[in-house]
Amino acid sequence: MKLLEKLAIGYLIGTGLLTLQMFLYSLLGIKFNLWGIILPWVVVLVGFVGAPFMGARIRAVGTPLVGVRNLRTGTSPVPTFLLTAAIGLKVLYVFYEALVKPVVGWDALWNFSLRAKIFYFLGGIPLDRAHPYFLGGGMKQYPLHLPLLETFTYILQGGWNDALMKVIFPLYFLSMLIVFYYALRREQSRLTSLFFTFLLSTLPLLVYHATIEYADFVVGAYFLAAVVYLYQFIKTKDTKMLILSAVLAALSAWVKDEGMVFYFIGLFLLVIPILSANKYAVKFKREFILVLYYLAPFLVLIGPWIIFKQVFGLSVGNEPTFSLAGMISGFTFHPETIPKVLEKMFLSGNWHLLFGLWALVIIFYYKQIFTTEKKYLFWSTALAILFFSFLYVFTYNWTMVFSGIIVNRNFLTLVPQVLLLCGLVYKEGKTDVGNADRAPTGARSAKSKKAHK
């Protein structure tokens, strides 16, 4: 795994673990302070950096991720430079646009920024239900990742500056682009990877949300990374990729409640092939252990938050009184939302022509998708769309479809995977990707040498 990709994943996982640490501090009654928060991570970092000098990680330094392809296109460096520069300019624009304006938007103010300020001034999360700012106010059932991360930026500043705090969102944008690029680069040329990364960086709604303080774009970054590394595990059988995917998927539930669904989509995509293909007890035992690997991060990282919500009677979603029994008894049927959702997807949703391109790719590259591991990328997106469609058609959320609020923000969480699938099947027939990604780079090299002998 390249250094840039490590840094991007480090930001996603690091910020998630940091805010979980702050949540744990509040449960234990420990007040927030800078050294109390960062000192454990300094110790971990020193140990991690020092490990190569002890000989434990020397061979891993600079080693590319299994399955990375070394494709040489023979093209001029000019297009590569221009695409890199264009992506860089877009990233700079996102940083500028985020840092030049204060917090805007109802959810950003009420559910994240206000709560962050309360946590900062109180030195922790108010956990007494009688407290006027219990859990910081706002929608108390919302996960605490973003308000706690904003609180941490205030602690770093020694005060609060909302414009400066917003640097965390462009960093998520940059991390998303890096993960997306390397997901493509393992199978495509540098030029193709840069081209599709540039397309991702230009999606209008994605760029806009990278400059404001809503959770949809952030949970989308975690969902993308979780899907990318689950796909890598399915291709390479590298258990580290599975664990990495599980951690990222679990942390998505700490950002937004929809992340819980994204996590179980990943679990479903892992379990179904096992149940349908296993014939031997020994193999089943191994696959069962892999499922446990995937479950463990969720139970460890998100389990305490779920228990906390149950103890304090907190619901999920944007309804303070939401319950599963209430949702079942209140089922409605509103097929009139379907044309509206399709109109948002294909016409007015600020996605360029992305969903139209996705539909064409599925039609014309059907075999390349559904006869290879790429089908898991398709199903991760399709299942997320089915989940949101269920909410629009059968629950109280149908009203928000017509208010123009919910569809674009929901689909923001999955558009990177839509474009990723398009990028991976681009020129598939010419590069023979379907056969090439099945074996690790080393294995293909060995086979090649053997053939020459």
Summarize the entry for a quick read.
The protein contains 24 helices and no strands.
Report what the structure shows.
The protein is mainly α. It has a domain at 323-428. Helix content is 71%, strand content 0%. It is built from 24 helices and no strands. The protein has helices spanning 3-27, 34-50, 77-99, 106-122, 145-157, 162-165, 168-185, 190-201, 204-209, 215-236, 239-255, 258-277, 281-311, 324-329, 337-348, 354-364, 366-370, 374-394, 398-403, 406-411, 415-425, 428-431, 433-436, 441-452. Helix 8 (190-201) runs antiparallel to helix 21 (415-425), helix 10 packs antiparallel against helix 11 and helix 11 (239-255) packs parallel to helix 13 (281-311).
Q: What characterizes the major β-sheet?
A: none
Radius of gyration: 22 Å
Estimate what percentage of residues fall within beta strands. under 5%
Unreliable residue runs:
56-66, 428-453
Alpha plus pi helix count: 24
The percent of residues in helical segments reads over 70%
Secondary-structure element string:
HHHHHHHHHHHHHHHHHHHHHHHH
Please tell me what the overall shape is.
globular
Distance between the termini: 31 Å
Compute the number of strand runs. 0
Helix/strand-derived category reads mainly alpha
Q: What is the arithmetic mean of pLDDT? A: 85
